[in-house]
Amino acid sequence: MNDPISTKRRIFNQSSIQGLLSQLKMSSRFVVLLIILMPMTVLADDTEVKEKALDSIDERITAVQSRRVQVQNRLSALPGDGSGAPPEAEADEWAEYRRVLNLIVNSYDSHLDALNKLKTVRVARQDIEAKSKAWLNFAEPGPYTIDFVDDLWNQLRAKERELETVRIEQALYDNLLESRRDSFKNSEQALRKAQEQLDKAESASVNRLQWKQDLVEMQNVHEQARVALLDTENELRNEIVRLRDTEKELLQRQVRVASSASPLTDQDRDAKLAALTQRQQEVGKEIQKAIEIGRILDEQWRQTRDRLQEAQTFSSSLLPEAAEQQQKKLELLQNELKTQMIESEVSSSIIKLLRLLDRILLAHRHIWELRYQVENNPDLKTLEDALAQIEHGYDQIKLWRKFLLSGLDAARRRLDNQEKKLIDWKPEFGDRELGERERLAFWRHDGMYRRLVAEADNLESTLLSFKQSMEMRYKNATVSDRVTKVYKNAGDVAVLIWDFELFTVEDKIVVEGREIINRRSVTVGKIVRILFILAFGLWLIGKISDRGLQSLSNRLPGHESAILLGFRLFTLIAVIAILVFALVRVHIPLTVFTFFGGALAIGVGFGAQNIISNFISGLILLVEQPVKLGDIVDVEGISGKITHIGGRCCQVHRFDGIDMLIPNSSFLDKSVTNWTLSDQSIRCTVTVGVAYGSPVRDALQLLEQAAVEHGLVLNAPAPEVYLEGFGDNTLNLTLDFWVGNLKQINRRRIMSDIRHRIVNLFGERGIEIAFPQRDVHVDSKNPIKVEFVSAEIETPLNLKGLSTGRNEPESIGSA
């Protein structure tokens, strides 16, 4: 028999659920009908259409909010601990019921967000449609800069990509909507089946079947909510597509107007080409630097490889105890060689990428030159040829991008793997410092690829802008009047820029005891004229100084430093004079320096102190002449001949052909060895060892004879010979002799000649040049016993006796 309390509770739950379901069903069906029966035709009165569309959205928002409140109230009434289930509901069914209620609330929230977004987008679309209808031209008249026109083209392409993205989303939501509609149909079928089971049920199972029907019906409500949500999302995407189409149409009109009024001017072309020229120069410097780095890395790699080969050869002759330690050394060299190979490969790849970057910049340059040619000669044949070149270039850049993206992916993978390896570094990986070097190489490789990809994208964008602009001009071939107007406006703009006032300077004069202040303007034109005067003046001063220095140096040999000092002072005074003349010529008062006084003082005090120090040091070197042009010096291990004393540094030509630039202050602050300060003579020493038993006196005479016979050896001081000492294997003899004219004579060649002569003289007299040797003496008090043992008695026991017997031979000693 059933419990009355349980029966009442069950009846209450069933009635409340049925009432809620009936309300939700009516509301959901009402929303579905609203969605299906929404007017899609365009009425004659735009204002009335807008108001009706927005009212329809507001009604849908109100209906969804009402249903959400009902479901939320029902959900809030349930206990938070999961209890309150009716007796006929199982635990998992009650949990599913609560979950479905939460999903319904979530769907309604998402639906409300979509409806609000739909309302906002619809208002934005209506506004942009009104703006598009009202727009006729830009607020500022043309012509416009080429950067402005290209920016409009970029906006148009970005809008096309946005439109493509929205269409993809629209297709995705269409698929989701179809899938949800199938789920909704299955849910309705399950609901009908549950109703049929309830109609056929006996009284004992009515409550159970009624509960299952309520659960299925709630799931059906959830499917309805999902369908309504996806339908609204699809409607939102349609509205966004219309908005993007309207924005795209407006941008197309703006681009047509801006492009037709703004051909590429001389200034734009020159600015682009100048910027590209500067970038090409920078890339050229990068290439040269990368080549030098690559040479250094290759040389280091070859040296390490030679060391590894030598170590491998040496390890093959070692004992097992030493071989283990040598093996560790080999592993270190192998790891070092591996890292250097990676660095060399990355350096080589970077050089190739930099050369590709140079090609991209050349392509940029060709595009701007072609664009200038086409826009200033807009006949149909020129346009057709330009479009053909653009198509070919676009195909090339797509191949470049594909190659660069592939290389970037590979470089990124190598960098990621190396970074992961460094994070979890193990001792068996080797030296962590080598791993960091490999990561740095991979990072440089990845950065270069990213740089090239960005440049390729920029080139592609420029090509597309040019292509679209030419296609539009191809449709509107008559542009001669607009070109004439552009040239006229370009001249006016140039005049405005030339007369543009940058700042003003006060010019104070005293007349009859009164101070009169006059303000003079500093314009772009004046700055350009000053720069021209300075450039020409510096060029003229350089020519005069070079020719004068060369002429006086030829007439007054030996006074090069004094002549250089004079011309250095002349150049300084002349530069100041030209600067003052340029300011006076363009009517800029000298008080302009007060405008930059503070900044100049700070710059000199902090940034230029090293430059000033080296400049003053250079003047001191020219005045005191501790070193002169042509002197052979040694500065902290750098030996060579001074070929130039400049304002900042001295150029020292080393004996191996490398030019070193040493700051002038180093010659005053550090220890300097000047081999030719007082004279050009230098003592050379040749050492030779002869075998014991050789006639020492004769050998010394032969050494002296070898030096005297050489024509470049000085007679005063005369050559001297010494018996230097008694070595382990040789009698050490030393020959000292002097050579002069060090600036022109190769002392190493003279020493080599004398050594050759010593070898010949010793050979003629039979004097042996000693070499290391050892005598081995076998010392034994007793005779060494030698026994012959037959093979059949060579047993392990006998062998053991031999090894431990009393008649064991004595050890062999060596002395």
Structure description:
With 815 residues, this protein is of the alpha+beta class. 70% of the residues lie in helices and 9% in strands. It has 19 helices and 10 strands. Helix 1 runs antiparallel to helix 2, helix 1 runs parallel beside helix 5 and helix 14 (597-607) packs across helix 15 (609-624). Mean pLDDT is 76; it is low at 1-17, 24-47 and 793-815.
Number of helices: 19
Total number of beta strands? 10
Strand order of the largest sheet: 6-5-4-3-7
Q: What is the straight-line distance between the termini? A: 122 Å
Beta-strand portion reads 5-15%
Major β-sheet, in short? 5 strands, antiparallel
Shape: flat
Helix content: 55-70%
Q: Uncertain spans, ≥5 residues at pLDDT below 50?
A: 1-17, 24-47, 793-815
Mean of residue pLDDT?
76
Order of helices and strands: HHHHHHHHHHEEHHHHHEEEEHEEHEEHH
Oligomeric status: single chain
> Which structural class matches the secondary elements?
alpha+beta
Rg, rounded, reads 48 Å
